[in-house]
Design goal:
The longest helix is centred in the first third of the chain and has 18 residues. Helix content is 31%, strand content 33%. Strand 2 and strand 3 form a beta hairpin. By secondary structure, it is an alpha+beta fold. It has a six-stranded mixed sheet.
Length: 147
């Protein structure tokens, strides 16, 4: 049997959606955890929004709770509000909400130049690191026990 292989150097959303669906189908077939996570309300979002006195967003955190984990997806604070304990406060709030929802661990990724030292000061440990990604830095997966 011969196979035709095409190389497309442009974005192809239809093909990407096809691959995503096939991987999702495979995961659902072979992992009960993946099947359950796709059930309605299996993933619990957490958004911590920080505003100034004029109700302008100055930062916050977006995360999800599933599989007993708190996964921090996005966390950012306006530069002029950093270094005053606000980030630590937001992170603690997210971890507390996660614990209320039954999590025992937290997970996040960061680049070394972003906030690795901040997370380490707050109890996170590097569970995986890709050095030189991007060049001159590292990409880190970090975890923390919430027990």
């Amino acid at each position: 049997m011969e196979h035709k292989i095409d190389i497309c150097l442009g974005k192809d959303n239809k093909f990407t959606d096809f691959l995503h669906q096939k991987i999702k189908d495979y995961n659902n077939k072979h992992s009960p955890h993946h099947r359950r996570i796709r059930e309605k309300e299996a993933i619990h979002p957490i958004n911590i929004i920080v505003s100034d006195n004029d109700n302008n967003w100055i930062g916050g955190l977006s995360a999800e709770v599933y599989w007993g984990w708190l996964e921090v997806d996005y966390f950012w604070i306006c530069e002029k509000h950093r270094g005053k304990g606000l980030g630590r406060r937001i992170l603690i709030e997210a971890e507390m909400v996660g614990k209320e929802k039954g999590t025992t661990k937290a997970l996040l990724t960061t680049f070394e130049f972003q906030a690795r030292s901040f997370y380490e000061m707050n109890g996170y440990q590097v569970a995986g690191e890709i050095e030189g990604y991007p060049p001159g830095s590292s990409y880190c997966m970090m975890v923390k026990s919430l027990l």
